[in-house]
Amino acid sequence: MNMHVQIEAVTPAPSCWYLLDVYPGRERDVLRWFGYYGLSGWFPLEAKHVKRSTGLLARKPHLGRRTFVPLIPGLVFVADVDADPRMLTFPHVDGIHRIGDCTARLSLDDMAKLRDIEAYLNAPRVGRGKRAQLKVGDAVRIMEGPFADFVGQVERLDSRGRLKVFIDAITRGVSVTTNETQVEQVPTPPSRPGLFDSRSRHLRRST
Q1: Domain endpoint, select from 95, 124, 153
Q2: 65-70 and 102-106: which strand pairing?
Q3: Beta 102-106 vs 204-206: how paired, if at all?
Q4: Residue 2: inside a domain, yes or no?
Q5: pLDDT, tens digit, for every residue of 134-148?
Q6: pTM value?
Q7: I need a labelling partner for 16 at 20 to 30 A (CA). Which of 55, 96, 123, 135 fits?
């Protein structure tokens, strides 16, 4: 009796991610070379709205076209199981990112946080100017005035459409009074600490 046993190859799980320095603006070109050689790389993208005439950032989303730009220009992330010496020979690659004499790397948890940040920044914006959808504690983005593009939390609402938004990105925080038509509701930020906040500012190092 003949028996045929089929053994499937198991792709090893990564244990960390390396940072590849590339020329800013050439991240997509580098990934094309990765694909040509059957290798894998990744870099996070952020949706932006730019003016069709100048290519500069539009003051409001409806004034420009939506495009995606690298969230961290000049870096491509490569899992340790996909690292291949050939990637250092690709055009527009400047080498493995280093911190002093050490090779920089990110843990799996750090990479999960970075993907959370990318998903949060690119989530659809909803509820701009709709008072019924806003409540105390909601996250909103200020669309006009000196604090345009800052994200804060609704502290107080009144019956005349005015609200107070607390922004904690400026020193110790500041409360801004604005109108409901000047903000838009945004998704709740990731619950885990941000990759680049005060509790996680340093990349892991390996010799």
Answers
A1: 124
A2: unpaired
A3: antiparallel
A4: no
A5: 778 888 877 776 677
A6: 0.58
A7: 123
